[in-house]
Write a structure and sequence with these properties.
The chain has three domains: 118 residues, Cobalt-precorrin-4 Transmethylase, domain 1, CATH 3.40.1010; 105 residues, Methyltransferase, Cobalt-precorrin-4 Transmethylase, Domain 2 (2-Layer Sandwich); 39 residues, no CATH class. 41% of the residues lie in helices and 18% in strands. The protein has twelve helices and ten strands. It has a five-stranded parallel sheet, with helices on both faces. Strands 6-7-10-8-9 form a five-stranded mixed sheet, sandwiched between helices.
Amino acid sequence: MTEAEAVVYRGRLFLVGTPIGNLEDVTLRALRVLREVPLIACEDTRHTRILLDRYDIDRPLVSYYEHNERARVAPLLAHLQDQDLALVSEAGMPGISDPGYDLIRAAIAAGVEVVPIPGPSAPITALAASGLPTDQFIYLGFLPRRPADRRKLFRSISAEGRTLIAFESPHRLVAALDDVEAVLGNRPVVVARELTKIHEEFVRGPVGEVRQRFHASPARGEVTLLIGGSEAEPPAPDVAGRIRELQAEELSNAEIASRVARECGVPRREVYRFLIGG
């Protein structure tokens, strides 16, 4: 057994959700953990200090952000050998489009107990109040900066029927809405801006109208963009064609029924009807 394999980690890694705007949205559990841990790793020490000062919490902070993330993993794992650590991002849940992924993966691989402390989430907050379908959705993270890459992404999901959620910077919002309309058509969209803050705003409507609104008055602050899913019916599976292909391979009816049912998403009895009738 190597020395690294012999290490037993007694500390716990707490992933602490923090407010996305309004400081009153922090949970009682989050405050307790932040008071109790000996060290807090945070994306922006100045931003986190505002939250801690608001609730009279005096804990040491260490920076953990995009450009030092990998270099920080080893010393933070060393800390976790015998002490707890809280990880927070600038807003929301750490690791969700924010620094944290590398540390979380390393902690799990080392056998560290990883404890999520739920908190506000901009995508879920925006979705709940959007008026778009909430039963199924896809989170795209930050949209690509380059227009060609953005349009490529939209083309790849053009047939997706679920609600799409993405982050976009305010100065690229109009260009992103141009690409939505050009690639996906005049879909319903929602621009959720400055969530939970004083100037919170939801702008809803067909993408053409929403684009004109922000062309006339550019967006400010943090933006979450939601796009309605495609309403086009997906093409019906070619059950008969797939049966013919498998029959050419001289498979048994039972195997054909099983494979076609699985591949085409239809009941086995329906496949048997094709087999009997074919």
